[in-house]
C-alpha cells in the first residue's frame, strides 16, 4: 500500500444536476489523519466515498486505485448495522477486546443494535470500522450522538490507527487533537460565478483557521489594490477626456487669424490635427490600461457570499400554562408504563433551564424495568430547556415522555436525531407541493441556515445536514408553539450551528433541545452548563 493517496482532476455531478458538485479538484492524503471540512452539501462525503471506491467520479482519478487497497467507510448515519457487525461480534481476539474496552462496547450491543441509543450505535460503528484494520479508513462524523467521554475514546482509537485516515467532521476539538492537515471545501467567487475549490492547510482546525484568515487578509489587500488602480486609471481617463473636449472648444478660436493669411491658417489646422491624434492615442491607451485593471480585479478569487440574516417567524406562544409536563417517577427506557419501584439506573437533575442526566453508581443496568428517575418536570409556554448527559442515561426517554403529555391540538415541531426511513423524499415532495406564498418563505429560511436554495430546487440529493435544515424550515410553516430537537447539531457545519443557535435564541415559543454541544445549549436556551 502506498503511503499517500493522490486525487487528480476529480469531478462529480449528480444525475440531472445543473452543475457539478465539484469540478477539477486535487488533493493528497498521506498517512495520518486528514480532516475534510466545509459547509453542508459541499461534497465532503462524496469525496470520501470516491476515495473508498464506493462512488465513481464523473472525471478524474484516485491513485493508487481503490481496488488495490483495503478501505473501510464509517457512515455518518447510524440507522443500519455495520456490514461486519457479526464478524466483530464473534471475534474475541486481543485487538477486538481492546476495542471493546476503549470504546465501552457492551457485550450484548451487537445483538440488539436496533434498541441502542444513537451514541451507542455510533460507538459500535466506529469499533467495527477500526476492527476491519483497513489501509484507508474514513470516519464520517464519528462524534455525532456521542458524549464527551466517548469522544475522547474515539480520539484515542484514531491516534492508534497507522494507516491513511480521512475524518469528515465539524468537531473542532476532535480535529485539533487528531489531524495533521485539513482540506477545506471553499466556495469562491471569480469572474461573476461561484466554484468549489480544495485548499490544504497544515495542522488541525484551529491552526487551519488562523492560516485561512491570513490568506483572506492577503486576498482582501490584493483586491483593494486592484480596485484602487482601476479607479486611478478611470480618473486619468476622465481627465484626458476633459482635455480633449477643451481642445475641441479651442478650435473655434481659429477665426481670430486673418482670413487672408493662408499660411497661418494652414499651420493652425495642422497643429490642432496633431494634438487631436496625440490626445486620442493617449485616451485609447488609458482605455486599454483600464480594461487590463478590470480583468486583474475580476480574476482575484474571493469567498462566495454567505447568508447571514435572521429567520423571521410570526408565532405566538401557547396560551397553556404548561404545554408539557411529566410526573415524578421512573421512566422506563423501553417505553413501557412508568414504574415507581427501584429500577432507576440513571436520574435527571433539574437546574433551571439546564436538565442533566447521569448514571446512578452501582445500579443494575440489566433490569427489565430499567429507566431514569425524574422529578416533576414542567415546560412553560416560553421556556427554553437544554438537556445533556452521557449516552444511554435516558435523554431521549425524557423527551419521549414530554411528547406523550402534549395536547393533540398543540402545534409542535419534533425533529429526531435519527430520521425516519424515506424522510428525505417526503420532505422534498412537501416542498414541491407548496404554493407561491409559502415556498419563498421556506427557501429564505433555508438560506439563512447557510444552505443553497438553488441546489435544493435543482433536485440534488440532500446531505443529512441539509435534510435537517429543510425539515425545520418546512415545520415552521405550521407555526409551532413547541419545538423539540434531539441532537440538532449532529450533521451541521459550524456556520449552520451558529445560525440555528441564533434563531432558537429568539424563538418565542417553548423549546426543548437535547445536545452534547454545551456552547449550543447556552446560546439556544440561555443555560450556562
From TrEMBL:
Q: Identify the CDD domains for this entry.
A: ABCF_EF-3
User: Coiled-coil segments, which residues?
Assistant: 219-246
The protein's matches in SUPFAM superfamilies, at most eight in alphabetical order, are given as:
P-loop containing nucleoside triphosphate hydrolases
Residue stretches making up the ABC transporter domain: 5-213
List the PROSITE patterns hit by this protein, alphabetically.
Answer: ABC_TRANSPORTER_1 (PS00211), ABC_TRANSPORTER_2 (PS50893)
Which InterPro entries has this protein been placed in? AAA+_ATPase (IPR003593), ABC_transporter-like_ATP-bd (IPR003439), ABC_transporter-like_CS (IPR017871), ABCF (IPR050611), P-loop_NTPase (IPR027417)
Domain of life here?
Bacteria
The record's keywords, sorted A to Z, are: ATP-binding, Coiled coil, Nucleotide-binding, Repeat
One term of GO molecular function? ATP hydrolysis activity
Transmembrane residue ranges: none
What's this protein's name?
ABC transporter
Amino acid at each position: 500500500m502506498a503511503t499517500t493517496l493522490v486525487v487528480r482532476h476529480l469531478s462529480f455531478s449528480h444525475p440531472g444536476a445543473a452543475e457539478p458538485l465539484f469540478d477539477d479538484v486535487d488533493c493528497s492524503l498521506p498517512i495520518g489523519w486528514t480532516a475534510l471540512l466545509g459547509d453542508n452539501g459541499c461534497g465532503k462525503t462524496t469525496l470520501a466515498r470516491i476515495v473508498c471506491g464506493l462512488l465513481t467520479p464523473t472525471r478524474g482519478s484516485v491513485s493508487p486505485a481503490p481496488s488495490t487497497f483495503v478501505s473501510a467507510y464509517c457512515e455518518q448515519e447510524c440507522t443500519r448495522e455495520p456490514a461486519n457487525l457479526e464478524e466483530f461480534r464473534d471475534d474475541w481476539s486481543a485487538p477486538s477486546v481492546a476495542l471493546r474496552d476503549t470504546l465501552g462496547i457492551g457485550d450484548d450491543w451487537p445483538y440488539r443494535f436496533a434498541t441502542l441509543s444513537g451514541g451507542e450505535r455510533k460507538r459500535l460503528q466506529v469499533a467495527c470500522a477500526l476492527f476491519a484494520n483497513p489501509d484507508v479508513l474514513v470516519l464520517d462524523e464519528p462524534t455525532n450522538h456521542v458524549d464527551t467521554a466517548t469522544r475522547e475514546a474515539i480520539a484515542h482509537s484514531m491516534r492508534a490507527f497507522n494507516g491513511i485516515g480521512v475524518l469528515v467532521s465539524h468537531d473542532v476539538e476532535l480535529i485539533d487533537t487528531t489531524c495533521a492537515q485539513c482540506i477545506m471545501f471553499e466556495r469562491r467567487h471569480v469572474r461573476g460565478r461561484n466554484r468549489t475549490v480544495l485548499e490544504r492547510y497544515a495542522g488541525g482546525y484551529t491552526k487551519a483557521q488562523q492560516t485561512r484568515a491570513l490568506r483572506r487578509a492577503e486576498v482582501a489587500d490584493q483586491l483593494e489594490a486592484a480596485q484602487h488602480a482601476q479607479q486611478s486609471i478611470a480618473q486619468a481617463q476622465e481627465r484626458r477626456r476633459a482635455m480633449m473636449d477643451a481642445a475641441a472648444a479651442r478650435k473655434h478660436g481659429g477665426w481670430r487669424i486673418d482670413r487672408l493669411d493662408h499660411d497661418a491658417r494652414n499651420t493652425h489646422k495642422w497643429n490642432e490635427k496633431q494634438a487631436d491624434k496625440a490626445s486620442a492615442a493617449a485616451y485609447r491607451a488609458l482605455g486599454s490600461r483600464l480594461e487590463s485593471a478590470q480583468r486583474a480585479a475580476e480574476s482575484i478569487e474571493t469567498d462566495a457570499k454567505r447568508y447571514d440574516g435572521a429567520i423571521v417567524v410570526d408565532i405566538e406562544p401557547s396560551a397553556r400554562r404548561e404545554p408539557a409536563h411529566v410526573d415524578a417517577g421512573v421512566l422506563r427506557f423501553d417505553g413501557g408504563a412508568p414504574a415507581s419501584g427501584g429500577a432507576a439506573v440513571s436520574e435527571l437533575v433539574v437546574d433551571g433551564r439546564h436538565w442533566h442526566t447521569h448514571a446512578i453508581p452501582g445500579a443494575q443496568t440489566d433490569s427489565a424495568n430499567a429507566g431514569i428517575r425524574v422529578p416533576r418536570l414542567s415546560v412553560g409556554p416560553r421556556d427554553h430547556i437544554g438537556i445533556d448527559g452521557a449516552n444511554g442515561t435516558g435523554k431521549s426517554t425524557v423527551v419521549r415522555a414530554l411528547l406523550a403529555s402534549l395536547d393533540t391540538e398543540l402545534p409542535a415541531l419534533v425533529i429526531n436525531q435519527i430520521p425516519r426511513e424515506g424522510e428525505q423524499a417526503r420532505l422534498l415532495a412537501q416542498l414541491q407541493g407548496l404554493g407561491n406564498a409559502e415556498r419563498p418563505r421556506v427557501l429564505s429560511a433555508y438560506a439563512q441556515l447557510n444552505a443553497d436554495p438553488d441546489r435544493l430546487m435543482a433536485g440534488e440529493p440532500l446531505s443529512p445536514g441539509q435534510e435537517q435544515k429543510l425539515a425545520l424550515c418546512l415545520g415552521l410553516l405550521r407555526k409551532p408553539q413547541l419545538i423539540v430537537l434531539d441532537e440538532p447539531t449532529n450533521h451541521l457545519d459550524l456556520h449552520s450551528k451558529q445560525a440555528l443557535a441564533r434563531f432558537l435564541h429568539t424563538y418565542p415559543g417553548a423549546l426543548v433541545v437535547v445536545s452534547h454541544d454545551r456552547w449550543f445549549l447556552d446560546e439556544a436556551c440561555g443555560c450556562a452548563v
